[in-house]
Design goal:
The complex is a heterodimer.
Chain A: E1 2-7, E2 12-21, H1 26-38, E3 43-54, H2 56-68, H3 85-92, E4 100-103, H4 107-115, E5 124-125, H5 128-133
Parallel strand pairs in A: 2-3, 3-4, 4-5
Antiparallel strand pairs in A: 1-2
Helix pairs in contact in A: 1-2
Chain B: E1 2-8, E2 14-21, H1 27-40, H2 45-66, E3 73-81, E4 84-91, H3 118-126, E5 129-134, E6 140-147
Antiparallel strand pairs in B: 1-2, 2-3, 3-4, 4-6, 5-6
Helix pairs in contact in B: 1-2, 2-3
Classes of the chains: A alpha/beta, B alpha+beta.
């Protein structure tokens, strides 16, 4: 998987993903997003336009980044569904995870996001400019 | 290391077998193989995508939890079985029956879902059959089936 980072402003960045996100590379995505947070980024857009495949490991990466952008440490990936608890508590309080935004998942990835509950948590936009406009 | 074989049995049924040593780096190759063979066997694109995801999730599970990152044999057979495409995956890892993994229920709030089982839940969603048996000599066999043509 190839990633490209666009720094839109001091507090906003876009990571473009191309290829396949799986168990071999999901940790790298977490590290990249976490590094940007450390540099002051507080809104992260993940552009999935070029992403062809996402394994459940990719869901762990999305969730970990959701936590990082709330100012929390990412969960242990082995915690599985347990990793979603804190974010879901926000969802039930009506707090969507606006700090992390997704762009243009393909139908297969959309199914994975849907089946794992991530569509309830993360906003999805049709293109990069819409995501940046929020 | 990988090897492949095409086998045609006495009934003329063709299957293609991929032998790999488990590692996270081999997952892309496994997906490419399933994609290629499923298309060759007449699967439509939704079926191809579903089979690719299901096999990837299982082989990841075997690699990470079964072999715990050590290289171990994984054999993957793909064949056309009537209107279905069938994938048989064998390993020599400790026995793990996915039926013991928590069932997925989207109606259950996330905070009350049990730990683990995300990949297993996806396989159940994507395939019409997902059968496991412990091999007599040790290891696991799972058979994943999905119609070649999506309704």
């Amino acid at each position: 998987m190839e990633t490209s980072v666009e720094r839109v402003s001091d507090s906003v960045a876009v990571i473009g993903l191309d290829g396949e996100l799986d168990a071999s590379n999901y940790q790298g995505l977490i590290d990249t997003g976490q590094g940007l947070y450390g540099e002051g980024v507080r809104t992260l857009v993940l552009d999935l336009t070029g992403l062809e495949y996402m394994a459940s490991s990719g869901i762990v990466a999305l969730h970990s980044l959701a936590l990082v952008y709330r100012g929390e440490a990412p969960h242990d990936p082995d915690s599985g569904w347990g990793a979603f608890h804190a974010v879901q508590a926000d969802v039930e309080r009506g707090n969507r995870q606006e700090q992390l935004r997704l762009v243009a998942p393909n139908p297969a990835i959309d199914t994975v996001l849907d089946r794992t509950g991530m569509k309830q948590i993360l906003p999805i936009f049709p293109d990069r400019s819409a995501a940046l406009a929020g | 290391m990988r090897t492949t074989a095409v086998i045609v049995d006495t009934a003329g049924v063709m299957s293609e077998t991929l032998h790999v040593k488990s590692s996270l780096e081999v997952l892309a190759e496994v997906r490419a193989h399933i994609r290629l063979v499923a298309r060759r066997l007449g699967a439509d694109e939704p079926a191809v995508r579903g089979l690719v995801q299901a096999v990837d999730e299982w082989v990841t599970n075997v690699t990470v939890h079964g072999y715990r990152g050590a290289p171990g044999p994984v054999d993957i057979d793909v064949l056309r079985d009537g209107s279905d495409v069938r994938v048989r995956i064998c390993d020599a890892a400790p026995v793990f029956d996915p039926a013991t993994s928590p069932a997925f229920d989207p109606a259950v709030p996330l905070e009350r879902r049990p730990f683990g089982g995300m990949g297993i839940a996806l396989i159940r969603h994507l395939c019409t059959t997902f059968d496991h048996r412990a091999l007599p000599a040790g290891g696991n066999e799972v058979i994943i089936t999905r119609p070649a043509l999506t309704a």
